[in-house]
Amino acid sequence: MPALVVSPDLVRARTPAPAVTPQPAPARAPVASPSRQAAAAAPTPAPSAPQATPVPTQPALAPAPASAAAVVSPVRPLDDSVSAAPAAQEQDASPLPAPGTQTAAAAPAAGEREATQVSALRIRGTRAVELVADGEAELQRGDITLTADRLLYREVSDEAIAEGNVRLAQGTDEITGPAARIVVGARTGEFESPRYAITRRSDPRAGEAPREVTGSGEAEGLYFEGENQYRLRNATWTSCRPEDPDWYVKARDLHLDYDSEVGTMRHGTVVFKDVPMLWVPWAEFPLVGRRQSGLLAPTVGTSNKTGLDITQPYYWNIAPNYDATLSPRFMSRRGLQLGGEFRYLGEDHAGELRTEWLANDRVSGESRSLGAWQHQHRITSRLYASLDVNAVSDDEYFEDLSSRVSVASKVNLLRQGRLDYYGADWWSASALVQRYQTLSGDEPYRKLPELRLSANRAGMAGGTTWALESHYTDFEHPEKTRYVNGSRLVLYPQVSLPVERSGYFIIPKLGLHYTKYRLDDPYIAGGRTSITRSVPIFSIDSGLIFEREASYFGNAYQQTLEPRVFYVKAPDRKQDDIPVFDTARYDFSFAQMFSESAYSGSDRVADADQITVALSSRLIDPRNGAERLRVAVGQRHYFSDQRVALPGEPLRIDRRTDFLAALSGRVTATTTLNSAWQYNPRDSQTERFNFGVGWQPEYAKAINLNYRWTRGVLRDIDVSAQWPLGGRWYGVGRVTRSIRENRVTEAIAGIEYDGGCWVFRAVAHRFATTTDRVTQSLFLQLELNGLASIGSNPVGLLKRSVSGYGKINEPGSGRIFGTD
């Protein structure tokens, strides 16, 4: 088979291979066939070019531009001659072969575009000017392939004109149509009546696998405007399967910018199931999920507090590190609320501002508002600052205007500023001012300010470790006639001698807890304005670690047995006259059993002469070191009666605590267990019992059961699940029932439908904010994959409420189950 090498600056003829005998119906050889020869075949002396007489026929393609010196003659069927070249180029002419699979490769000169290869059943033309490929024509350059029934390629202008069954492919992108004209290297030109499919990979979020998004559609015309730039006339776009899309965008003018990953439509309509749903004069939308300015899909919901609830957010992508969202919200019962959020990110700072304002609440008749500001700042490599300020106009703001349990049940809103300095690896200092806006109950003390200095230096003389915990706090309460105000200084130096080996550890420690108070009002403080307290504290923490190889249920494990003993000694110091600023008793747990003090804060230092004994065992997967199961039991024993207590706290008279047992772990690849038991040996009864089991065999399949019981206080059962119902339907829900009160405290019921390129969700939510007040909400959402969502979004609620919940229109492969 002949080969013709064409270069922009030099044309050299190469000896053709033996001619292929013409057949009535020439068949094109496969691409991999030996008959299709490479353009770099070894050159041999070229014969002189035969002369041919042009045969006039009707032109099938647009004529070459006037600047082209040589114009190829119209193609004659089954002819082995080439039209005569101008005299200036006649000496470089070489014959084109008889029909068959022929190849012409345009080899680049140094520093110019990469080689272009043209192949077809018949190729004719003038070298270094233009080639006409007829019959299964194909042009290939790099990863670009252009095929058509007939193709004209002008090498000087790098222009390809194609007719009949035209297909342009580059990587995973494909465009087809009846005709096209393209400048290959510049990626400019146009396609007539095309169908297209363009695929890009989205940036994965935390816990997700990368996801490919394919945008496809059709148009009256498609115009190439450079690499990754497409403009379409009277076009559609969808992320559904192109054969029969459930939804699509239809626009008079559509611009697809895959550099910024933004689509822009003018006079556009969103069509779902052949029903026009939304018309917009202008809109932008993400092509692969990247953010851009524009209207976001509205959220629509309803609740007994707000009535019909519609929010229409507008997102403003100010800069790569700044953005804002404006969110006007209409509530049929309350009125119009304006909301906004501004986020910023710098090299050494980040933060978020949020505000809401309801000028006139139709129910209360008052103006209602919210404001919040969170900021973090790295001032130097060692000095950091943070600010967290939250405020609302009234105590019922969240209960009336929020549909989230975690928000509606807020009691204290933090207002705090903080500075942290990290010195060497062994010390740090901080300063903060803190207060709260209290929506219910008594307000906590304000700290104006609190200064802290902490140090921990290992490897000192004799292998000792020296540590210091110190802080100074000014406490202030707005109700000065009921609460004493004052300051507190705490110094707690400590020294320990840790001995840690592979099979055991012993850590003796000695410290002195010194506290000094200065109180403002001696009458409220019991007649004293200055109180000092010093308590020496001694402790020994010790343990053994035994290991063995074990096998359970056919699986090999590394099993440990870890006994631990913790002893604490602290004398009784009179503390009844010391006010309580920020101190409470810890809840009894495994963590607290190995703590020196029974109290948080420093207003009480517990007297102690006690020993904690515990035994734990772990099953560890030797293949990856993952802990599969942990079992622990423990109890604390006292050698003396309790003498230090908070006001109103009963003194302990028992010489031993309740017995604690716990079991937790991922017992199989799909099942998790979590259980805790607190048993009172004196009364021979259970004080507290919690049990939870979760089963998640696959992504978006999860069942959870939790039971919580506290004697005389709590008895709840909690069931949550997400599960396929059949076909593409999924059910999701949660029920928390108080057996003790015989009522449902929270209920969620929802259905989801996965349409492949869209998802529909309907979720009802009911929760009790108090014993006699209930809030109900309804979420309806239509999410069009790769475009936007319409309606109120229940996904955040479902992820918080159903452990292991998976968003059904996100890929589960490689994901961490149940994460966002």
TrEMBL record:
A GO cellular component entry from the record: transporter complex
Localisation per UniProt entry: Cell outer membrane
Keyword Hydrolase: no
UniProt keyword annotations, A-Z: Cell outer membrane, Membrane, Signal
GO biological process: Gram-negative-bacterium-type cell outer membrane assembly; lipopolysaccharide transport
Residue ranges constituting the LptD C-terminal domain according to the UniProt record: 367-729
Family statement: Belongs to the LptD family.
Protein's name according to its UniProt entry: LPS-assembly protein LptD
Organism ancestry: Bacteria, Pseudomonadati, Pseudomonadota, Betaproteobacteria, Rhodocyclales
Gene responsible for this protein: lptD
